[in-house]
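Worked problem 6 (solution included).
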Amino acid sequence: MKNKIRLLSLVALVALVLTPMTAKAQRHTSDDSDFAERDEINQTYTLASGARVELRGINGMVDIETAAGTTAEVHIVRSARNRDDLNYHKIIIEPSANSLIVRGENDSDHGNHQVRHRVTLRLPRQIDLTVSGINGRTTVGAIDGPIQLNGINGTVDVGQAVGYAKISGINGRVKVNIVRLSERGINVSGINGGVELQFAEDLNADVEVTGINGRVNADVPNVTVMGKLERNNFRARVGAGGTPIIINGVNGHVKLTRGGVAG
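Solution. The predicted structure is:
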């Protein structure tokens, strides 16, 4: 009974955290099409290996593609119902050799000026990526470096995680392909939707799942369940173990499946 009360309290907390983001998102419908009036930003920059890239405050869907090299391309479409509204909710780009910040303007007076954003970034794989405050689905390609994703109102799909990954405060399904991780591992928390982790065959990790409103489905080779198998809590060793993979506060099912290396 105590475990059930604790789980319900955790789910309620997750819902409370996500409520302000969801309420704010009511102005943005599920229709991702552009409004009639629009403008575009198309810029190219050069980034050093391991550069910090930050994307935040976007009202719309985000696609982050990656490739080898040092070139970063920024493609942004802003759309509104009339030209006057395009004077609001602008996108600010702050580039340097070691960082690239793309952020939505924090207007002091939003009024009824509705502007949608559609962001596509083509980035080097070797970066330190942070994405936050996104009102739309978010897709990330193969990142060879740390990833932090938080405050996203939409589904999240990470093509390949190689390094540390922290994903939190997501109002939607989360899917991550894990190939190799640093000693810090991966932390997933506060997810209002299902979570699917795809593991490479040679991955060694210790998995701990707690406080979920759903069940755990482990369909991967070389998995040893540790301790007593419970509905809402799960501990297992993948391969030889070692790297921590922590999942907690999920309002949905958790799936552990076989994955591979992204292209």
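Discussion: The mean pLDDT is 85.
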